[in-house]
Amino acid sequence: MKHTHMRKTRRFVLACLACAPGLPLMLRSSSGFAAGDGGELNAATLRSLVADPRRARILGFSYRAQFPVEDYPGVLTDLIRSSLALGDSGAAALNRDALLSVLDARVRSEFGAGNIVRVDGWVLARTEARLCALCE
Amino acid sequence: MFVDARTLPLKFVIDADICIVGAGAAGITLARDLSGGNRRIALLESGNFDFDADTQKLYAGEVVGQAYTPIDRDRLRYLGGTTNHWQGSCRPFDALDLADWPFGVDELEPFYRQAHDICQLGPHTFEPLDWSTDEARPLELGEGASLRSGVFQYSAPTRFGTVYRNDLAAAPGLTVYLNANLVQIDTNVAGSGVTSLEVACLNGKRGRARARYYVLAAGGIENARLLLNADRVQKSGLGNEYDLVGRYFMDHPFVPLAATIVAQAGSPQMSFYDHHLVRGQIIEGYICASDEVRRREQLPPFAIGIRPAGVETTAGVAHMKLPPALHNLMSENFADHLTYYLPRWLDRLETPVTWINQRLWRNPPGAYTTVYTCGPEPDPASRVTLINTVDALGMRESRLEWRLPADFERHMQRAHELLAQELGRTGTGRLRIESSATTGYDPVKDLGEGHHHMGTTRMHDDPRRGVVDADCRVHGIDNLFIAGSSVFPSYACDDPTMTIVALALRLSSHLKSAPG
After folding, report:
1. Chain B residues touching residue A116 (CB < 8 angstroms)
2. Which residues 382-421 of B have a C-beta within 8 angstroms of A?
3. B433 with A121: Cβ contact below 8 A
4. What is the mean pLDDT of residues B395-420?
5. How far is CA B156 from CA B80, B83, B167, B415, in A?
6. Which one of B320, B367, B416 has the shortest CB-CB distance to A17?
């Protein structure tokens, strides 16, 4: 009976993980980047920060369905850029490690301030949810 | 001294100054603490030293409403009572837990100190940082955080009937009557004082117990049943003038797999909130709301624990299951002890068991699940009543209707949302809340209970709002007291045993100073 329960638990957890990654895995570490430091903070740059675009797409799809008004790459990019409060020149001055660091700080502060959204059960900071939504 | 009531004369009479009914955590604590003075103490225990199926059947009853373990299975009716399968979790209630009680935490504090030793716990601290190690340390939540950490210490667990049996045998002035069942409480014509207890044995012997003071310490369901069955003078039952006896029944709902957390594999912050050994003491961290958030959001007291996904820590399982063929080869008592202690022994091996488990099931690294429990708001419709079926001694059986509040799931989700925020804010991990609406998995379907029976003779200064007063005396009856978690007017979020023991010591102190 206990083993049955353990199997059930394991199946349940695997099913959860198949749907979406944990967000510590969401931002790609600096070793994942080879070039392009100091570039414009556009949709492609933002997408390149996501560690697992395939899984992020699943979450992003749900997010866009939940918030159809944001279902445009331009809108999402603008919203993320404004939440980071960098401006074009500020973003250009950052290398990717620094950009990741800014994003991480922003995400943490959103969690702290309760600026969160629930997507398929995952509780995400608004900005990281939008990053997922960019990965269409 | 122990006396088997079945060996007494046919119409026996037990004379004492104080008569206590029920030898569980409360009754044994009271009896030990009261003995040694100049008063004669009689402790009536329905069972014997060991489990007996016929005696256990006296607990049979009906369960309606919210699914619940049959009530003749989650209690034990022999010396030591339900502590014979107690899991051992202990924590003193805090100030906010006692907000609805007629006294504050300061009143209980000295009794908690004694209860701590009676429950055989480790060092006298429940401060999370005192239990922090490199392998398991609490989340750094900070001063203004919405959540905070707490700690449960695990008792050996203390089987009161086994551990204190010699004390009971040797205690001066104390006689423990085994196989002695209370079947009726007789009062004077006005119903303002108990005159004697009618006592029956399963072998047909019957007698009376007479005392100056009487204490019911028979458990959260049985205390109400005994009062409701005592309907000779007051037809609705003793102490039930305002229809409160049996109402406000509550248990701690327990939801495994309430959420999934993804964090660093082997994270010390995750390990802290599972059962683990620290300097020889089993502890378990938990996460709960800060007092401010609990007040502001009107959340019930809750506790969230964290487990590695797919691995059940055996200390968290009250009993392992034996195959019936093997189970039938041994006595119920031996099976009970084996199925309790073996998993805990294995758990103490910790690393090998975890290692095997993890390889057996190939758990995803860094995946954890939460377990959630809470103390919901008192609800008068959640209650114990009587049915017309009678037991072998002619007493009407209990019907239990456990109700959970309508906002139970919403509160559980909010608690996890707060945890998700703290995990995100501290960069520890991310959390997914399970619900039928969002993920298709409904954790509430797997809801269990803590087997903590509380609230059915609640304490309140006003007799219209409580069955007993602040001294645990039944309103309107001079010499009848109640011990145990049935007097809790609210429920905190954890095992009641340590508070049961503290309250029993407080009642003992009161009875010692009561006129002889």
Report:
1. 417, 420-421, 424
2. 416-417, 420-421
3. yes
4. 95
5. 14, 11, 18, 30
6. B367
Task: Decide if the complex's ipTM is over 0.90.
Answer: no
Is-contact B346 B320, C-beta < 8 A?
A: no
State phi, psi for B115 to the nearest 5 degrees: -60, -35
Nearest CA distance, A25 vs chain B (angstrom): 9
**CB contact, 8 Å: A104 with chain B?**
yes
- How far off is chain B from A98, nearest CA to CA, in Å? 17
- A85-132 pLDDT tens trace: 876 666 666 777 888 888 889 999 999 999 999 998 999 999 999 999
Element (H, E) at B401: strand B396-402
- pLDDT digits over B198-211, tens only? 999 999 999 999 99
Q: Which of B262, B361, B424 sits opposite A6 (nearest CB)?
A: B361
List the beta bridge partners of residue B372: B255, B304
The residue count of chain B comes to: 516
Pairing of strands B253-263, B367-374: antiparallel
Task: Please state the three-class secondary structure of B24-76 as a single string.
Answer: CHHHHHHHHHHCCCCCCEEEECCCCCCCCHHHHHHHCEEEEECCCCCCCCCCC
Q: Does the distance separating the beta carbons of A116 and B421 come in below 8 Å?
A: yes
Where helices occur in B181-323 by DSSP H, the ranges are 222-229, 268-271, 291-296
| pTM (predicted TM-score) | 0.87
